[in-house]
């Protein structure tokens, strides 16, 4: 039995990395899927990568824009008629620098995408789900939403904010049978992590990667599929009694 049969899933930041891998898994589990990302070219590449299946819609939009957010929700409803799963995943890493040296424009951009974007998505998707009397939202936080680390204060701040957003939303909509949870990966092999590795030590990203992997109890980075498997569980009815929860998927990193 396919776990997302007859469900419609909306994934932001869906053209690459964890979002793209989750789309692949969702499609294989019977969902129809909308991918939202910044650029049409990247979305076309992603659709090709997924085999251009029926039941895939791509929308170019910036999650931090109110107008774009209204549009990606409206177009999903026009095409598929409902939204059962919302993977609120789009995010950026910001710059690597001590807090005192961070530029306020960079802080604002990280907050705009990671917090305002996630908030706007909830504002427009939750009314659809409460109207349906069912739905599951998975907010993308990070290990950086559970503990601190040096030189990425804007990112850490934004990912802690996603925890507050998750708890606030979960309590508001629970009586409508809508669930809201967050996921908290440790480093995952994606473009974003590559950029952070280079930011920590320019030209020596591979060494940074090895050092970081050694801090993870299971001894390796996550792969996008490791995260997608948890997102699938939270998206499906297997997690019907779980809401307002924070899920590490981190090789044991949060435990230490
Ligand atoms: P990625 O860079 O591979 O993918 C992120 C996608 O989001 C990209 O396709 C990008 O174009 C899109 N995006 C960025 N800004 C956007 C915007 N304003 N509107 C729409 N789309 C936008 O990175 P990833 O590692 O797959 O990251 C996905 C999420 O996972 C992020 O929220 C990130 O913070 C989180 N995360 C990643 C890691 C990791 O180690 N890679 C760990 C913990 C959490």
UniProtKB/TrEMBL annotation:
All copies of domain Ketoreductase, residue ranges: 7-191
Xref: SUPFAM superfamilies: NAD(P)-binding Rossmann-fold domains
GO molecular function: oxidoreductase activity
Keywords noted in UniProt: NAD, Oxidoreductase
Family affiliation: Belongs to the short-chain dehydrogenases/reductases (SDR) family.
Name of the featured protein: NAD(P)-dependent dehydrogenase (Short-subunit alcohol dehydrogenase family)
Lineage: Bacteria, Pseudomonadati, Pseudomonadota, Alphaproteobacteria, Rhodobacterales
């Amino acid at each position: 039995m396919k776990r997302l049969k007859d469900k419609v899933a909306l994934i932001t930041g869906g053209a690459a990395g964890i979002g793209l891998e989750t789309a692949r898994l969702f499609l294989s589990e019977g969902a129809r899927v909308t991918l939202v990302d910044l650029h049409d070219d990247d979305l076309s590449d992603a659709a090709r990568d997924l085999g251009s299946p029926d039941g895939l819609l791509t929308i170019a939009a910036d999650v931090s824009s109110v107008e774009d957010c209204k549009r990606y929700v409206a177009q999903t409803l026009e095409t598929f008629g409902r939204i059962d799963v919302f993977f609120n995943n789009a995010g950026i890493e910001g710059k690597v620098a001590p807090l005192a040296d961070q530029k306020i424009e960079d802080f604002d951009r990280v907050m705009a995408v990671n917090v305002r974007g996630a908030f706007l998505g909830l504002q427009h998707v939750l009314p659809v789900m409460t109207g349906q009397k069912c739905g599951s939202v998975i907010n993308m936080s990070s290990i950086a939403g559970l503990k601190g680390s040096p030189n990425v204060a804007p990112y850490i701040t934004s990912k802690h904010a996603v925890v507050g957003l998750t708890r606030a939303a979960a309590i508001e909509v629970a009586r409508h049978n809508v669930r809201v949870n967050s996921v908290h990966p440790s480093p995952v092999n994606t473009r974003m992590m590559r950029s952070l590795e280079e930011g920590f030590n320019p030209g020596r990203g591979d060494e940074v990667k090895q050092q970081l992997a050694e801090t993870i109890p299971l001894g390796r980075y996550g792969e996008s599929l490791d995260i997608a498997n948890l997102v699938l569980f939270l998206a499906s009815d297997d997690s019907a009694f779980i809401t307002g929860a924070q899920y590490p998927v981190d090789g044991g990193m949060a435990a230490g």
